[in-house]
Amino acid sequence: MKTVSKVKEARRLLKKPQVQKFDGSLHTQKFWCYCCGLEVEKHVTDGNMMVLFAGLIEHMATPEHRKNTHTFWWQNKAEQKIKDKFLFSKEEVDR
User: What span, in angstroms and rounded, lies between the C-alpha atoms of 76 and 68?
Assistant: First the structure.
């Protein structure tokens, strides 16, 4: 599942965040959140520097995403033991 690999990469970058010089081709990348039914910015930028996967992580830490993930898992009878992989805590985002 492509989404799983994006989330794994984001979790890996939590340990050592990557900041790069702004790159318009990367900044415009988005990801589709199946749980929320939204297209979200994948990275975060201030126009000069860019934090990779920060948009994905920030989105997956919102209360709305948490609620939508629970609903998505229940409606689709998805495997419960992997649901937490799609949720980030506020503490993880603050890091």
Answer: 12
